[in-house]
């Protein structure tokens, strides 16, 4: 018996245009098949499950009513797009999601004309859709043509400032634009904030009753199909209203709440909007994250992200862990520091579990702040608390900190405020691919005057870096660490503050020094083993700091060795560039030092296992060994000997 669900209707769909031949009841049945196919696919790939399950009906209805790829359907974040991928010609490859050479876990322009705009970071969809609408109205051209622009944005994503910037601009422009607010009352964690509470009030309790009575207003905006026939649609839409909402004030026609799992209701609303809208419209759809798969519906995160799993039981197939994760080491260390210092507070931008701050929140609920998807605000909020005498730790993934960069420069660095940045997911992260790679933080932080920038070589080092940041009261600091497990090193009871700008030598050798910044250190040590077998004994050092540099150590390594190689899990312009600047300033190159920098290549590396991605980046132990041989000119000699 096949472990794939029977999908007779879905089997008739090779592109969205095929949906036009389906009757409305068939579309409802198609949605159940699409849900089963999504569950089956994610059970073998792992990935973002709950969000996609929540938009299955919406996905079918949108593709049935609109004409993609001419109409531009833009999924915010893109983590809910698996059902969309299945309907848009990628069903054959859906079981390759998030793996090397497979489909991306997000929307991606290079992958399909049905993904008109790539995403993975949140809250960009309304801006992008408004861009398409403007291009359409001003004679732009693009693959597939230009029709309607439709943004689907979640209740979590709409908490970000960027979404409001877009709504503000779109309401002012008045162009025809369709925004679907997919409100499942969930972000990754339960949503937070006044906006989330406001959205809930729009369909719960007294305000909902008021809106019901205002439902008459809808017929003015959307006369078809209310005035003739379509009695069912009229009944369905009785509880739907326009007027009186924040969105109306911003210049949108607000339609909602709509049951996002009721195909008839969705089709009625979308067909009407398609036929009648002449300005910006916001459709408020109420959905359930994880809908239709009991283990996801029951899960605390509603099945937001999952490992591979057994479809029948929902049991996830997680590989056993050999060492604690860097994230949990960070979280526990921060709790320990906060127990000793009542001024320590922590900030997360909608990632309490991902950053480990859920642990901190349990222990110190009043000292932990989840600000929603709002990295810019998180940084400046932390800066304000630092100015007010608290000791804020801002825990943000490297990739998401990019969004708060001006705030880091303007609000933190220039004012020299002691905000501590705990930068998780440094380096290549695996299945989430290039959008989530932590590639640039060292480059963009180590260039800021006054910043202290550290990288943990292992989990014990991370414990010390948390203590170092806690003790550092006179300037901003950051410490970075990778996704995943540590290397199982012995852990200190409590961190000891490190001397600022002081690295450490791991092994003394000769001829060549390898200076590692961060978690490539184990790879350097593995390369050393291979080099020892060739009669080369490299010095291995852990820089710990990219700023301030350990000048003394670096200059000694440069002067006492024929070659110096730096390595870091980041893009060019980071640690290696800082070292190069020092060596140039000190005239060390004039003396003939052979210097090499190992950094991420100047390309975005597609998703794969982290090890495969680092192999693609030529940053594994054999690559380090090869770099040493090349710098010393040994490889060529070996090859000649081989020939002889
Ligand atoms: C700028 C940014 N910050 C954080 C994230 C991590 N993130 C991905 S999905 C998500 C929750 C999104 O919630 P919502 O928009 O309501 O979508 P849902 O998953 O509920 O469908 C978060 C915080 C991100 N992708 N981008
Ligand atoms: C969609 C998104 O941005 C997050 O769900 C992200 O995939 C989480 O990554 P981690 O698994 O590294 O926490
Ligand atoms: Mg949500």
Write up this protein.
- The protein has 644 residues and is an alpha/beta fold.
- It has three domains: 10-298, 3-Layer(aba) Sandwich (Rossmann fold), CATH 3.40.50; 326-480, 3-Layer(aba) Sandwich (Rossmann fold), CATH 3.40.50.970; 504-643, Rossmann fold (3-Layer(aba) Sandwich), CATH 3.40.50.
- The strands form three sheets. A seven-stranded mixed beta sheet has the order 7-6-8-9-11-10-15, with helices on both faces. A five-stranded parallel beta sheet has the order 1-2-3-5-4, with helices on both faces.
- Helix 6 (161-173) links the parallel strand 2 (149-154) and strand 3 (177-183).
- Helix 18 (375-387) runs parallel beside helix 20 (405-413) and helix 23 crosses helix 27 (621-632).
- The longest helix has 22 residues, at 24-45.
- The chain is globular.
- The protein binds thiamine diphosphate, 1-deoxy-D-xylulose-5-phosphate and magnesium ion.
- Its EC number is 2.2.1.7.
Strand order of the largest sheet: 7-6-8-9-11-10-15
* Strand segment tally: 17
Residues in helix, %: 40-55%
Number of domains: 3
What is the alpha-carbon Rg in Å?
Answer: 27 Å
